[in-house]
Specification:
Blueprint: H1 4-10, H2 17-20, H3 23-26, H4 37-43, H5 48-57, H6 60-82, H7 87-91, H8 95-110, H9 115-137, H10 148-180, H11 184-195, H12 201-237, H13 248-253, H14 267-286, H15 295-319, H16 323-329, H17 353-371
Length: 372
């Protein structure tokens, strides 16, 4: 356990919940610890007790920030050497888990009440396990695999632009984002010093809400996985697979519009954003603040998903003829006030002759396929 003098060096002496979310008291005074940290670690690299003392006498938020800055040049170097820009993608499900486990571990070693942080660590580990598994089964960890969207970006910005984009956004900004979305856990750590080891209503509500959102992501991922496996088998055999509950029309469409995907065009993305917004709201409620500095991470996460989804849908609309109809009928993240099934008759866009012609061609093609 850390002695009180070292604890005073590592954590602010907060007296009220709102002070736990005060950037000027809980973050700014500890940023100077970042500068000598690498030198101190390398100077005692073979001394386990000294390293443990450095770890416990350094503000846990600063330690997490230092790790994020350490990872940034590594992923940049690997990306540029391999001309593969999915290096952060491979760490996306891992780094937030590391940060939240770090906060919980630090609290355990420092003798701070940890029941709340253990709940955060548990639901984050479930989130990471689900996302890692889904990324793995889609081949994301295969050598040479890369997100298909980066190829579009590379063609648009060129080699020099891609290098700048990699330095500024892919490697640095995304690493900082993954650090920032877990920063609310630092505020929860500070709040735990005041409230003790019991769990309150907010702890029960938000931990269960995050668990349900992770569960929603799991079902959305599984439905998407089943659809694409069925589509692959259908294209290979020209027969509708009996083991999957999809019609020929759904498989001919090329993209999933059933299950959760009948109500949201991106139910997994919606739940993903909800997970980290819940963690942010959790720290707001515990610190008695309507808004605090962690809002930067939560808002940036929402903005990233807006831009990423925009590019995803742009490519989907160019690939699938009916995707524009899907966008009209089904909400992007949340269900529309009036969500219309893709199994209903198509509504033609007024004054758009090209859509009418395309719809006729699609109907004729579908008819030929059925006759075959």
């Amino acid at each position: 356990m850390l002695d009180l003098r070292a604890l005073a060096v590592a954590l602010p002496a907060v007296k009220t919940p709102p002070e736990c979310a005060d950037f000027s008291k809980t973050v700014a005074p500890y940023l100077p610890q970042l500068y000598p940290l690498p030198q101190n670690i390398f100077a005692h690299i073979n001394d386990w007790e000294a390293l443990q003392h450095i770890y416990l006498s350094t503000n846990p938020l600063v330690t997490a920030l230092a790790f994020a800055l350490f990872v940034t040049p590594i992923v940049l170097l690997v990306a540029e050497l391999n001309r593969n820009y999915s290096q952060v993608d491979r760490l996306w499900s891992v780094l937030p888990v590391i940060y939240n486990c770090h906060y919980a571990l630090w609290a355990h070693l420092a003798g701070i009440p940890t029941q709340r942080l253990d709940h955060v660590m548990a639901v984050t580990a479930l989130w990471g396990a689900r996302l890692t598994f889904n990324y793995w089964r889609k081949g994301g960890y295969n050598v040479g695999s890369e997100d298909y969207r980066w190829e579009t970006v590379k063609k648009y910005v060129g080699p020099l632009g891609m290098f700048v984009f990699d330095v500024v956004f892919i490697s640095l900004a995304q690493n900082m984002l993954l650090f920032m979305i877990t920063a609310p856990t630092y505020i929860l750590l500070l709040c735990s010093r005041l409230t003790g080891d019991g769990l309150g209503a907010y702890d029960h509500f938000f931990s269960k809400a995050i668990f349900l959102l992770v569960l929603l992501e799991f079902f959305a991922d599984q439905q998407q996985w089943d659809y694409h496996r069925a589509k692959e088998q259908y294209r290979r055999t020209a027969k509708v697979p009996k083991e999957y509950n999809f019609t020929r029309e759904q498989l001919d469409r090329g993209f999933n519009t059933s299950g959760l995907w009948a109500w949201s065009r991106h139910p997994n993305f919606a739940a993903e954003q909800g997970v980290w917004m819940c963690l942010y709201q959790w720290c707001c409620c515990e610190s008695w603040t309507y808004m605090n500095w962690c809002f930067v991470g939560a808002l940036s996460y929402l903005i990233l998903f807006q831009s990423s989804t925009w590019l995803t849908e742009l490519l989907s609309a160019s690939k699938y003829a009916e995707y524009k109809v899907y966008k009209q009928r089904v909400g992007k993240f949340l269900p529309k006030r009036i969500t219309k099934s893709m199994n209903a008759p198509k509504v033609e866009v007024k004054g758009n002759a090209e859509e009418k012609t395309k719809g006729a061609r699609d109907t004729e093609t579908a008819g030929k396929t059925k006759r075959r």
